[in-house]
Each structure stands twice: as structure tokens, then as C-alpha cells.
Amino acid sequence: MNQIDITFSNGTVLQVLGNLIEKFDDLSEPMNDIAAVLEFATEEAFATESDPATGAPWASLSDAYLKANPKRQGGKILQVSAGGLAASIAADSGNFWATIGSNKIYATIHQFGGTEGMPAGPAAIKARSYLGVGPEDERQVLKILELFLSSGV
């Protein structure tokens, strides 16, 4: 492989390169902002009862479930109690990562749904995705990163 080495002696170029190296050493500020975007997208998913990535509405509660739980008729899906799934959502971030999730044991089955082979009842449910990133969220994440990269370089 051919290689060309370029050495910069210009103080401004060296300073900008040094600033970039420093910036990439700690991305906690933009990662915290990105975690906030993820959290807002999830809150909106619960509020609109729709998949945050696609905007598709969640599946309605089954007739069998509503018959067994008449108090749920006309109520919000996945938001029954203050200690429920919606209330358990937490975002976090660090130097190089942003994440969102729930500590509820049943969170995964609501995100991805059950499978045909699962027994009827709580396991064989349709997916009601509440975690995800839609096009507007992606634009916000890119804007956060753009602003971070352009500030103070």
C-alpha cells in the first residue's frame, strides 16, 4: 500500500486538530442530548400509541383481553398504573453511548410481541413497539452531532 505523510506546522491547523481530538475524548454532552431524544420519542410512542420508528398505530387490545379486563375498555394501552411499563422507561448516557429501556420483565414481549407457538394469554400478544427512532428523531440526532462537531473547533 502506498502512503503519503503530511506534517502540519501551521498553528491554527494543529489547534483545530487538537480540539477535535479533545472533543472525541468525551462525547458525554451530545450523548446526553441523544438520550433525551430517545426518551422523548418513547414518551410520544406511549402518548400516541404508535411505533416511534414507523408511526404505525399499535394493535388494539384483543376482545378476549378486554372481556377479562373490562376496566381497560377505552383506556390507554400499556399505561395502566404509575408503576407500569410507561413509567419504567429510563434513558441513560455516557462518554460514547446513549440508551433507553425498561427494567420490567415484560418489556421485551410488548416491544417485539409473542409468537404463534406461545400459549394464549399474556404471552401471545401482538407487538406494540414503544422503543425506536423515526426520521425526525434521526434528524435531531444528526443535528446534535453537527452542532457538537462545529462548536469550538
Describe the structure.
With 153 residues, the chain is mainly α. Helices cover 44% and strands 5% of the residues. It is built from 6 helices and 2 strands, in the order H-H-H-H-E-E-H-H. The protein has helices at 11-25, 28-48, 63-68, 85-88, 107-112, 135-150; strands at residues 90-93, 98-101. It has a two-stranded antiparallel sheet. Helix 2 runs antiparallel to helix 6. It is elongated.
SSE topology sketch:
Blueprint: H1 11-25, H2 28-48, H3 63-68, H4 85-88, E1 90-93, E2 98-101, H5 107-112, H6 135-150
Antiparallel strand pairs: 1-2
Strand order of the largest sheet: 1-2
Mean pLDDT figure: 83
User: Between the first and last Cα atoms, what is the distance in angstroms?
Assistant: 32 Å
| Helix content class | 40-55%
Multimeric state of these chains? single chain
Number of helices: 6
What share of the residues does DSSP label as strand, in percent? 5-15%
Structural class by secondary-structure content: mainly alpha
- The total beta strand count reads 2
Low-confidence runs: none
How can the largest sheet be summarized?
A: 2 strands, antiparallel
Instruction: Spell out the helices and strands N to C.
Output: HHHHEEHH
Nutshell version of this structure?
The chain has 153 residues and is mainly α. It has helices at residues 11-25, 28-48, 63-68, 85-88, 107-112, 135-150, and strands spanning 90-93, 98-101.
